[in-house]
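Researcher: Next sequence.
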Amino acid sequence: MPTTRFPAEPDAAEGALLDTFYRDLAQADLQPLWRQQGLMPDTPPLATLPYLWRFKELRQLAERSGDLIPIYRGGDRRVLALCNPG
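Model: Next structure:
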């Protein structure tokens, strides 16, 4: 059975879709865990703010992550963390 090889970097069209997707995540105060480093800081953050994430928006963005982030590009766990804007 032949092995399928995937490019490590997206092509220009896919890159544009990813850029838009990551910008939309940031505007919704979400962070994709597959791109985070240092998830366990030595000290907790100093400030938090009351914030409400809307399910409809979260679901749409989560579905887009499944379409745009394949396993070979770090999407073996497509997790979106709720990131307090404070």
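Model: The first strand starts at residue 30 and ends at 32. The first helix runs from residue 12 to 27.
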